[in-house]
Amino acid sequence: MQAHLEQAQCLLKKGIVCLPLRADGKHLDIARMGYEPVHLQTMRKDLKELAFNSITFHFAQKPPDHATISNWFSGHQGNIGILGGAGDLVILDFDSTADYDAWCRRHQEVADAAPQAMTPGGCHVFLRLPMPLKSSSMHLGLRRAGHIKALGGYVVSSPSVVQGEAYTWLPGRSLLEVEPPMVADLTSVSLRPVSPIKQGYDRLMRRGSFELQ
Question: pTM for the whole thing?
Answer without folding.
Answer: 0.91
